[in-house]
Amino acid sequence: PIGDFESLEDVIGAFAEISSETAAEAPDRLHIVLWTLTGSGPVHADLRRPGVVIELLEALRDEHAPEPFAGAVWLQRLEAETRPARDLEQLRKQQDLLGDLLRLADEARRNPVTLAAAEIGSDLDLGTPNEVSTAIRGELAVLLEDPRLATLLGEDPWETIDWPRLLRRAEVLSIEGLLGADIDS
User: Fold this and answer.
1) Is the pLDDT of residue 121 over 60?
2) How far is CA 96 from each of CA 24, 46, 93, 102, 129, rounded to the nearest angstrom?
3) Span 49-74, average pLDDT
4) Which residues, in sequence order, are bridge partners of residue 78?
5) Worst-scoring range by mean pLDDT, 14-18, 108-112, 161-165?
6) What's the farthest any 2 CA atoms get from each other in the chain?
7) Given CA atoms 144, 155, 158, 149 in this order, what sign does their dihedral have?
8) For the whole model, what pTM was predicted?
9) Cβ-proximal residues to 46 (8 Å cutoff; 6+ apart), any chain
């Protein structure tokens, strides 16, 4: 969680601690780790800048495992699944476009097959419970039918996609896109 981090230097310091603890547990092994940054806090805005996560990953690799050796901790992948430092529940209660989007995402997360008609609007025929899923599939079909993507995702890409993660990402993009800079509410 990034809640206690004020800067990217704090993130680097936290990884140094994790790296040290991991290396101490088995100093005779090369450790390969995946690190996921989660939660909200001031450093979210830094992590959202283009190229920052990749630069951070490379810096951590260079510092902790420039070459494989016993006790080294090599960061295979760094993921930033953070969100703006805002009160998501309060934003969800708002009676505006952002509130509508966040409520819709929350409902889709809790009940992926059916969605409340009042939350969707009148542009979809909600006579059948899977109409929203059908609409989403229709919008993404061209992309997911690309043979290159099908090779990566497997036989049924709809089963491969991490929908809860996709919804969290959509919420973050909605908040950032509609509210702008990451400031506390």
Assistant:
1) no
2) 51, 27, 9, 10, 25
3) 91
4) 35
5) 108-112
6) 62
7) negative
8) 0.59
9) 7, 8, 52
